[in-house]
């Protein structure tokens, strides 16, 4: 018979019970500004934020990419830290459902065209407009999100609002808004959002009622209808375990397995049912949540330590939805961000819990370029990483952003200066003759020239005086490729070669290339007499 955990206290909307017989950490963890931590995590400034300026969460390290905890999913981080440091933990219906809803959103975005007509009747994107008189404080931003959410519900087939938005006994206005942004993120392949302004673990506390958690179970059954049974079949037993807990029968075995089974204690991996809350993990190449969680393929009772998932592989827990803000002063490209913003701590007993919130920031300029390209040109559907991810081991980050919007297409198609962007599977390796600079052709021009990207090693200074610096840059080249016999190529008999004298460096980086294409209205700007290359091919010799 399943052993029931020792209950410390039990109310209608909260139960606290003992899990592991460990000594509780007495010291509280250091805190820092949640606003500043989130800005550092996003590497950008926030225009608006859900919480007060003095709101704090526990401090996170940012030592290096491998050991940093700054970008860990806050739910994963809270459980992992509570488990590893013998600290109590609190879980809410909002935190669990937000995690599931973000996984559902990732599934929709990863399969947008296949699922399109289960959600909407229109092709391409429909614009959703919101008009406000002011944007002075967070209440105005919450109102904008609420109005967008209502329009989404009016334009989709399913009861998507009832399904995705948090409305539990523990839900606050901040959490509700954050969950609405997750819904906007889920459907961003079908809608454009536009805003107009007219003038003017020693113990665990589980919050929520039995009805809250039963409602989550019902929602999980619904999202299973969207080709997600492979995930929801693992979620339902978790829901049942929490429902039993809130009803006053917390299973000790169930809660001991949240992070990892007792037989696998130790190490920096997660094998417990916490891992089942995530249908997709970060892809090793793209860093996007497109990699199906392999732990879901193995029955729970057959899992070993080899199935464990490092915390850094889980998604960040931040959802994003871009929108245009139109004022009398012009148009600005902004972005709503929402989700898990840090790990909170009860200052009386040290209990950890994931914090949920939202914010607004200025959109990355390159995202604005991609939005413009999507609206005005003939582009293919986004890439399916489950099919194509093994084609390349390394790609520029901005190229990954492009592929996740469109996998190939044609810019300025009805002109004599079209740009035919290849699908990833058609990218072609080339090299510049005599220099041995390797590049990858990803655009074909109307006149049979190609455009390729290549990683260039740059150096300055010298070792003797300690001024030596070495770094990498992404250069964009244009040239006329010729297929030649190549005895040195171990895999192919022929290689595409570009001659140095007819090859130019036309941009430093993917963003600059597309910015220049738009500025030149599609003309081959690098053929102009006054064009000055960013760098000379001679620099590579």
Notable characteristics:
2 domains; alpha+beta; 10-stranded mixed sheet; 6-stranded mixed sheet; 14 helices
> In terms of per-residue confidence, which ranges show pLDDT below 50 for 5 or more consecutive residues?
none
Radius of gyration: 26 Å
Q: Bin the strand percentage.
A: 25-35%
Number of helices: 14
The geometry reads as globular
Q: Domain count, please report it.
A: 2
β-strand number: 24
Average pLDDT for all residues: 87
Percent helix, as a range, is 25-40%
What kind of sheet is the major sheet?
10 strands, mixed
Terminal CA distance reads 75 Å
**Content-based structural category:** alpha+beta
Summarize the structure.
This is DUF4419 domain-containing protein. This protein has helices at residues 34-42, 74-85, 93-110, 112-119, 138-155, 160-164, 173-186, 210-223, 229-246, 252-256, 365-376, 385-388, 397-403, 510-519; strands spanning 7-11, 14-18, 31-33, 46-49, 56-58, 89-91, 126-132, 191-197, 203-207, 280-282, 289-292, 318-327, 330-345, 352-362, 378-379, 409-411, 419-421, 428-432, 437-445, 450-460, 469-479, 482-485, 494-498, 504-508.
Task: Give an overview of the whole structure.
It holds the Pfam family DUF4419. This is DUF4419 domain-containing protein. With 541 residues, the chain is an alpha+beta fold. The chain folds into two domains: 33-363, no CATH class; 378-540, no CATH class. Helix content is 28%, strand content 27%. It has 14 helices and 24 strands. The strands form five sheets. Strands 15, 16, 17, 18, 19, 20, 21, 22, 23 and 24 form a ten-stranded mixed sheet that branches. A six-stranded mixed sheet has the order 4-14-13-12-8-7, with helices on both faces. The radius of gyration is 26 Å and the shape is globular. It starts with 6 loop residues before the first strand and ends in a 22-residue tail after the last helix. The model has no long low-confidence stretch (mean pLDDT 87).
């Amino acid at each position: 018979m399943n052993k029931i955990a020792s209950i410390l206290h039990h109310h209608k909307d909260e139960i606290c019970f003992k899990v592991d017989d460990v000594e509780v950490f007495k010291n509280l963890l250091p805190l820092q500004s949640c606003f500043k931590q989130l800005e550092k995590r996003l590497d950008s400034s926030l225009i608006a934020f859900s919480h007060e300026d003095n709101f704090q969460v526990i401090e996170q390290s940012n030592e290096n990419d491998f050991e940093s905890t700054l970008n860990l999913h806050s739910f994963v981080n809270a459980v992992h830290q509570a488990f590893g440091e013998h600290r109590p933990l609190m879980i809410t219906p909002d935190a669990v459902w937000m995690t599931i809803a973000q996984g559902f959103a990732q599934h929709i975005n990863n399969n947008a065209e296949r699922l399109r007509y289960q959600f909407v009747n229109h092709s391409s994107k429909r614009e959703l407009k919101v008009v406000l008189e002011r944007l002075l404080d967070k209440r105005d931003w919450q109102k904008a999100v609420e109005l967008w959410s209502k329009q989404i519900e009016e334009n989709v087939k399913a009861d998507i609002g009832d399904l995705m938005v948090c409305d539990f006994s523990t839900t606050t206005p901040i959490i509700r808004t954050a969950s609405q942004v997750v819904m906007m993120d889920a459907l961003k392949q079908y809608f454009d959002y536009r805003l107009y302004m007219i003038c003017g673990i020693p113990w665990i506390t589980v919050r929520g009622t039995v009805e809250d958690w039963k409602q989550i179970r019902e929602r999980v059954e619904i999202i299973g209808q969207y080709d997600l049974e492979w995930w929801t079949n693992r979620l339902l037993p978790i829901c049942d375990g929490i429902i039993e807990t809130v009803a006053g029968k917390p299973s000790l075995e169930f809660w001991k397995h949240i992070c990892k089974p007792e037989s696998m204690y130790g190490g920096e991996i997660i094998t417990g049912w916490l891992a089942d809350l995530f249908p997709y993990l970060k892809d090793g190449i793209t860093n996007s949540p497109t990699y199906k969680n392999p732990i879901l393929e193995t029955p729970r009772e057959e899992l070993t330590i080899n199935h464990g998932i490092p915390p850094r592989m889980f998604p960040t827990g931040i959802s994003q939805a871009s929108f245009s803000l139109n004022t009398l002063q012009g148009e600005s490209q902004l972005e709503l961000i929402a989700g898990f913003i840090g790990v909170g701590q009860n200052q009386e007993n040290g209990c950890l819990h994931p914090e949920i919130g939202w914010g607004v920031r200025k959109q990355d300029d390159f995202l604005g370029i991609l939005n413009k390209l999507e609206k005005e040109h003939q582009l293919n559907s986004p890439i399916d990483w489950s099919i194509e991810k093994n084609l390349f081991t390394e790609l520029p980050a901005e190229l990954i952003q492009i592929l996740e919007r469109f996998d190939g297409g044609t810019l300025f198609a009805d002109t004599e200066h079209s740009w035919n962007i290849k699908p990833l599977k058609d990218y072609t390796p080339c090299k510049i003759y005599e220099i041995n600079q390797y590049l990858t052709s990803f655009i074909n021009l109307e006149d049979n020239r190609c455009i390729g990207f290549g990683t260039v090693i740059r150096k300055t200074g010298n070792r003797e005086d300690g001024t030596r610096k070495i770094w990498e840059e992404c250069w964009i080249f244009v040239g006329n490729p010729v297929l030649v016999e190549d005895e040195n190529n171990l895999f192919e008999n022929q290689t595409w070669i570009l001659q140095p004298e007819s090859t130019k460096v036309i941009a430093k980086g993917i963003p600059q290339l597309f910015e220049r294409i738009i500025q030149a209205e599609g003309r081959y700007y690098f053929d102009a007499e006054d064009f000055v290359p960013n760098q000379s091919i001679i620099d590579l010799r």
